Each structure stands twice: as C-alpha cells, then as structure tokens.
Amino acid sequence: MAKIKKGDTVQVLAGKDKGSTGKVIAVNRETGRVTVEGVNRVTRHTKAGESSRGSRTGGLIVQEAPIHVSNVAIVDPSDKKPTRMKTRVETVERDGRQKATRVRVGVRSGKDL
C-alpha cells in the first residue's frame, strides 16, 4: 500500500477505465484508495447557491473518485509499462557518518522510480 505515492504515474489494471494511465492526485492510506487524474470520473449533483460575488454555483460537477490501490500499478518510466516495485537500501555518507536510505526500484527494468 505504501508503495504508491502522490505524483506517481500509474496504470489502471481493472474496472471501467482499464488500461488508462494518469498521475496520482491523492492517497488515502486508511481506506487503501488512490485518486488518479482523469480516471473513475463521476458526476456529482451539488446544491445551488450564490457566491460572495453574486454568481450562481452548483449543478453538475464531474470529478475523479477514488479507486482501490490493488487496481493500479506504477508505470516504469523506461518502457512506459506497468511494473511491480521493490526497494533497495543504499548507504550515503553525510557529514562523515553513514546513513541508509531506501530507493524505489522497478522490477521490470531495475531502474530507479
């Protein structure tokens, strides 16, 4: 679940938008859902009202709805195909001390994501 982050490019694996790609807008770790740009668009009916300038608001709004994280896969930037992800631990020397950092790596190509 924690592998997909905001800003990642993902491809939808299941559902009505299967095969489409988009950028992750939001991640909800509690429900295990991600919101992807241009995917799972739904129409919301909002109550009519007035803004402070006097213009009418409300009506039909089309926006993205969350999709379960198991239905998306991260896209490998080298070949633009969906891939799984693993982590590699690298040691970096900072201020004379060794520090371990985790790097996300695509399984298909072995390159950093």
Question: What does this protein structure show overall?
Answer:
This is Large ribosomal subunit protein uL24. One of two assembly initiator proteins, it binds directly to the 5'-end of the 23S rRNA, where it nucleates assembly of the 50S subunit. It comes from Phycicoccus sonneratiae. Residues 77-98 have a biased composition (Basic and acidic residues). By secondary structure, this protein is an all-beta fold. The protein has two domains: 1-75, SH3 type barrels (Roll), CATH 2.30.30.30; 80-113, no CATH class. It is built from no helices and ten strands. The strands form three sheets. Strands 6-3-2-1-7-8 form a six-stranded antiparallel β-sheet, with no helix packed on it. It has a two-stranded antiparallel sheet with strand order 4-5. The two termini are 16 Å apart.
Question: Which tags fit this structure?
Answer:
113 residues; mainly beta; SH3 type barrels; 2 domains; 6-stranded antiparallel β-sheet; two-stranded antiparallel ribbon; Ribosomal_uL24_C; Ribosomal_uL24_CS; RNA-binding; ribonucleoprotein
